[in-house]
Fold these 3 entries.
Entry 1:
Amino acid sequence: MPSRLYAFSLPLIFFRSLEWPVRKPVFLFNHCPGNPYTSIHWWTCRVPTPRTTFDSDFSLTPTLRRDSASIDLSYSHPQPTPRVHPFDQGGTNRVKSKAGFTSCIWAVLCLLYTLGTYRFFSAKFRFRERSQSSSAAIFDSTYAQWIKTLRRMCSLWRLARVGCGLLLPLSIALLQLSDVSQTVFVRTCTITTAIFAAAGLLSSGSYLFLRSELKNQGMRIKWVEASRHSATAESIEFWTFLALPLTSLFWAISSCALTIVSLAWTKQNGIFVESDNAYIGGGIFISALTAITLVHLYKAAKLLEWL
C-alpha cells in the first residue's frame, strides 16, 4: 500500500513542480506513532512577484507545531513602504504656496494697520547679540536682556493704557452732541476714536496684567527669532502685536484730533444734506475697522498663548 501511494505521488510531484514560477510545492511527511502508513501533506505557497516600487525581503521561517510532528514553512516579510510618486508632491507645493501667500497678505495688513510703528519697537527692543564663551552665559544674557526689554515695554503700555482710558469716555461724550451725531464724517471719526481707544485699553491692560506670563521661554525664543529675521512675516506679526497698544493710542489721538477740527469748522445751526453713499461708506468703514481690530486682538492673544 505505501509503495502504491508513492508511485501515484511521483507524477503528481513532477507536474506540480512545473508551476514553480508561480507556486512552490511543499510536501512534508508526517509519520504518526502507531499508524503503519505514512501520510503526505500537500499544499502550495505562492511566491510573490518582485516589484520595483517596493523593497521586498522575503525569508522562509520554519514553525514547529505543538499539536503534531509536522513543520510549517511560511513566508514572512515586513510590510512594504510605498514610495511617494514625484507627481504627488504638487499638492504639497500648492498648499505651501497658498500658506506663503496668505502670510504675505497678513504681513501687508499688519504694516498698513501700524503705519510702520512696529519698526520703532523692532529697532528699540530687539535682541542684541553678544559674544559669549559658553551656552550658559548666552542663556543668562538672553534672559537678562528679555527681562530688561519687557520692563521698558511695560512703561509704554502703561502710557497707552492711560491715554486710551481718557480718549474712550471722551469719544462717547462727543457722540452725545447733535452736531456730531447728525454729520456722517464727524460721527465716523468719533466712532473710530472709540474703537481704537477700546482696542488700546484692552490690549495694554491685558499685557500688563499678564506680564509675568511673557517671561517664559517660549516668548523669549520668539523674541530672539523676530530680532534675527526682521524681514519675515512672523517677525512683522510679532512686533505688530507688541506695538498694538501704542499703535491704537496713535490712531485714537489722530481720529480724535480730526473730530475736533471738523467740529471747529462746522457751521452751527446748518442744514446738512448728505447722500446715501455717505451713510453706506461710513457704515462699511466702521464695520471693516471693527472686524480688523477684533482679528488683531484675537491674533495677539493667540500669539501670546493665552487662548
Note: DSSP finds ten helices and four strands in the chain.
Entry 2:
Amino acid sequence: MPRLVYLNLDAAYDGEELHFENGGFRKLKEINLKNLKWLKVVKIDQGALSHLEKLEIGPSLEMKEVPTDIINLRKLKHLDIWEMPREFVAAMQPDGGEHFWKIKNVARVRFWRKDDAGDYVEYKLSSSNAEPPKPALSGSNPKPPKLWDRRHPYTPYGYSAAFPSPLVGVYTDKSDVNNFADY
C-alpha cells in the first residue's frame, strides 16, 4: 500500500504489539489506533511512517506509555490521546512527566476524556500559567465550538495537582473539533 495516506484501525487489531517496519507506509499522513483493547506496545522503526503528521491513540488500556519510537516521527505535528490510563497521561506532562521528552517536539498534544454527560473533554499539555485557547471561527456563518473559555479545576481523573489548571474544551460532536484553534 505505497500510496495510502490515511489508516484507521478502530477495533480492528487484537494483538499486543503493533510494529511499523522501515520503508512501510511511505506516504501515510494520519493513523488512528482506536479501541485496540489488547495493544500494549507500538514499535516504529527509523524510516517508517516518514510522512506521518497526525497520530491518534486510544483507548488502549493495556498500553502504559507513549511509544519511545515516536521520536522517529520527524514530521509528526498532532498527537491525540483518547481515554488512556492515568499513568499514561501523567507521564507526558511537561512539569515532571518521565516520558515528556518523547513528545516535546510535537506541536499539538491533546488528551480526550468523556465527562459525566458523555461529552468529550479536551485537556492539552500545559503549564499552570498557560492562557486559555480561543476558538477559531471559519467560514461565512461559522458555528462557534462549545468551549469553556476559562480555567477548569477538573481533570479527566478527578481533582489533582498533577494536572495544573488544564484547559478544557467540550464538544458534542466531531464537527466541533474542526472549529477549535490549532494552538
Note: Residues 42 and 96 are 23 Å apart (CA to CA).
Entry 3:
Amino acid sequence: MILVADCSALVALSVCDSLNLLEKLFTSVVVPETVYLEATHPNKKQAQALKIFLHGKVRQKELRIMARISTADLLTEK
C-alpha cells in the first residue's frame, strides 16, 4: 500500500523518533513537494531528520480532477 504523507503526521513521528514505522507499514511512502517544503522548513526542529527520511520520496504535484461540481449544483438546495 502507498502512503501519501502530510506534514503534521511526519513531524509527529519524527518527534517520537518513529519515522521508520512508515516504511514497515507501507510498501511505498511519498510526499508532495509542498509537504516536503513545509516539513523541512528551517524553523522546524525536525527539519534535518525529515530531510534525510524524505530523500527520494518527494513527488511533483500532480493535479487530478476527482469529481466535477458545477456552480449550479452548489447553489441548489437539496
Note: Residues 7-15 form the longest helix (9 residues).
